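In the current project phase, we have settled on a layout for protein records. A sample record is reproduced below.
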Amino acid sequence: MTLSELLTYLDRHSGYPILDGTPAETLGKARTDGHANAYAGEIVACLAERLAIDDADAALPERVQVINSLGRLRLKYMADDAPVEGFRIVEKVIATIDSAFNEEALAQKGR
């Protein structure tokens, strides 16, 4: 799975506006704090930074690495003084990433 495919999946299935244009445009906006949704932009930027991805068409590593890349952000929004909406979106995105990898695994098995 590529970052582009994951971002598209997240946009369609997470209930949050992850994409802000194409996946490549979304990555660029997220890196410059220009994403229309600040939380989504922070998530996309964190994924790219922690996974060392510079291109939306780059292949993603294994599921655990992708999910773990959001660990720092998850902890940030678990703090008592953090906005609840930030925690909700990070948690939903993590669950949706897991679903994306499940669907990919099932598709590879021909189910």
Summary: The mean pLDDT is 97. The chain is about 65% helix and 0% strand.
